[in-house]
């Protein structure tokens, strides 16, 4: 008899995650995964950074979309730049977390095509640091409400 009680408790615990998951997904379906970078454009560097975004950045992101690495990308800017926090958000949409994790090597090959050598990639990173300061990053899941 004691065996049946332990088996029943184990069955309840094993079934619990799926029932909780079913309750969670009652209100939404999991959507795309977004990698989000928060940056602060340094004083006097607005035009330089916007030129970079419109040039090399756009070329790199468009190549990643074409290669199927990312689904899309967005650049958002705040209206008020007078505080000390971030003032621009760069967003990269991946189909799933697995696609994000698998994308690293493919992204590196795109960067090599856009920038040329590894030295050129490193130099471009240094140039960006002169124009902007990284303020953080987040990974987010889009929730598709039912």
Describe this structure in words.
This protein is an alpha+beta fold and 146 residues long. The protein has a single domain (29-145), classed as Alpha-Beta Plaits (2-Layer Sandwich), CATH 3.30.70. The protein contains five helices and four strands. Strands 2-3-1-4 form a four-stranded antiparallel β-sheet. Helix 2 packs across helix 4. The longest helix has 23 residues, at 2-24. It is flat, with a radius of gyration of 22 Å.
Looking at this protein, list some descriptive labels.
146 residues, alpha+beta, Alpha-Beta Plaits, 4-stranded antiparallel β-sheet, 4 strands, flat
The whole-number mean of residue pLDDT values reads 84
Rg over alpha carbons: 22 Å
Helix content: 40-55%
Instruction: Briefly note the CATH topology name.
Output: Alpha-Beta Plaits
Q: Which band does the percent of strand residues land in?
A: 25-35%
Q: Can you tell me the CATH architecture?
A: 2-Layer Sandwich
Order of strands across the main sheet: 2-3-1-4
Low-confidence parts, pLDDT < 50 over ≥5 residues? Answer: 1-13
What is the makeup of the main sheet? Answer: 4 strands, antiparallel
Top CATH class: Alpha Beta
| Count of helix runs | 5
- Number of β-strand runs: 4
Series of H and E elements: HEHEEHHHE
Which structural class fits the helix and strand makeup?
Answer: alpha+beta
Q: Rough shape?
A: flat
How far apart the termini lie comes to 44 Å
Count of discrete structural domains:
1
């Amino acid at each position: 008899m004691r065996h049946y009680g332990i088996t029943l408790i184990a069955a309840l615990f094993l079934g619990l995650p799926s029932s909780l998951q079913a309750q969670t997904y009652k209100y939404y379906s999991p959507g795309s995964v977004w990698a989000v970078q928060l940056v602060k454009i340094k004083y006097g560097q607005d035009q330089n950074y916007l030129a970079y975004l419109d040039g090399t950045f756009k070329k790199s992101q468009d190549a990643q979309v074409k290669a199927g690495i990312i689904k899309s990308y967005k650049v958002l800017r705040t209206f008020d730049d007078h505080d000390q926090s971030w003032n621009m958000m760069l967003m990269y949409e991946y189909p799933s977390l697995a696609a994000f994790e698998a994308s690293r090597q493919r992204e590196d090959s795109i960067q090599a095509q856009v920038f040329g050598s590894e030295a050129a990639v490193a130099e471009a990173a240094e140039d960006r640091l002169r124009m902007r300061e990284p303020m953080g990053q987040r990974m987010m899941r889009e929730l598709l409400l039912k």
